[in-house]
Design goal:
Helix content is about 35%, strand content about 20%. The chain is α/β, with parallel strands linked by helices. The strands form two sheets. The chain has a six-stranded mixed beta sheet with strand order 6-7-8-3-9-10. The chain has a four-stranded antiparallel beta sheet with strand order 2-1-4-5, with no helix packed on it. The chain is globular.
Length: about 300
């Protein structure tokens, strides 16, 4: 296989229309340079508050009357069965999904009616790590990071490259900086995706089941990076099926089913003495999958 370094070209040599289309996509998540000063250019308190939040798709109610406050620097694990509304909940925070009712406040400021530059400002403060890594296949690991820094934030190539390498080093991927995504394992690609999410120095990071697409052997390396980020001052909201991570790293568990929050508790309490019957059944199935005959 030809190395990723040999196959790729500098960003400035890529077709202009290709760069333009990628910048449009990236501007969904990062503010356009020159417009970054405003109400969400910096969060005084990296808090998130849901007030009576509803989400519907037509007649289907996905989330119902969600009330939840996440404090600055807190690590919250969102648990629940598939289809319970977990991913929708965090996608509402930076408007990857739109509210049907209620309000979400970030830094005690309402976000439901944001658009344009103010929405881009918010998204620069709120990083997002997807299940599927969403790396550009024709760009190296470092270029996947410098693309936004150069073409959205207006960084010069050299500082952007230095920033990318520093972020890759932070996630243990500096030696793979010039490799294409196809030359990386799933766990390595997800670590690059986390580095990319950190590029704009977000104060809040949302993780949408970041290990669900990985082989079991790859999960640990991603969780290790997330553990290092936890309690670093960044507010982390993590949708996950990784019970060990939730038990050992999270400050609080939020259990959702049927679009409703059924229980919130510290990990020690939730995993040893869950109060809601549905949470009890969920843990029995997840932690003791071979002993479910009576459920």
């Amino acid at each position: 296989m030809t190395s990723g370094l040999a196959q790729t070209r500098p960003l400035h040599s890529l077709a202009p229309f290709k760069i333009a289309s990628q910048v449009i996509m990236l501007s969904v998540y990062f503010p356009i340079r020159g417009r970054c000063r405003g109400v969400f250019s910096h969060l005084e308190q990296a808090s998130v508050e849901f007030r009576h939040v509803d989400k519907r798709y037509g007649d289907h109610q996905v989330l119902r009357d969600i009330n939840l406050t996440i404090t600055p620097g807190e690590v919250v694990a969102i648990l629940g069965p598939s289809g319970s509304g977990k991913s929708t909940l965090i996608r509402l925070i930076n408007q990857l999904e739109t509210l049907s009712g209620g309000e979400i406040l970030v830094d005690s400021k309402p976000t439901g009616q944001l658009s344009g530059s103010r929405l881009r400002q918010l998204r620069s403060r709120v990083g997002f790590v997807f299940q599927q890594f969403n790396l550009y296949a024709h760009l190296t690991a470092s270029q996947n990071i410098t693309l936004a820094l150069e073409h959205v934030h207006g960084w010069k190539p050299q500082p952007a490259q230095e920033r990318a390498l520093a972020l890759l080093e932070k996630v243990g991927m500096q030696e793979k900086a010039h490799h294409l995504p196809a030359e990386l394992s799933g766990g390595q690609q997800q670590r690059v995706a986390i580095a990319r999410a950190l590029a704009s120095s977000p104060q809040i990071i949302l993780f949408d089941e970041p290990t669900s697409a990985l082989d079991p052997e790859m999960i640990g390396e991603v969780l290790f990076v997330m553990k290092a980020l936890a309690h670093s001052g960044i507010t982390m909201i993590v949708v996950t099926h990784e019970m060990q991570f939730a038990r050992e790293i999270a400050d609080r568990i939020v259990f959702i089913d049927g679009g409703q929050i059924l229980e919130t508790a510290p990990p020690g309490q939730f995993f040893s003495q869950p109060s809601h019957p549905r949470a009890q059944r969920f843990l029995q199935k997840v932690l003791n999958p071979l002993h479910q005959e009576h459920l």
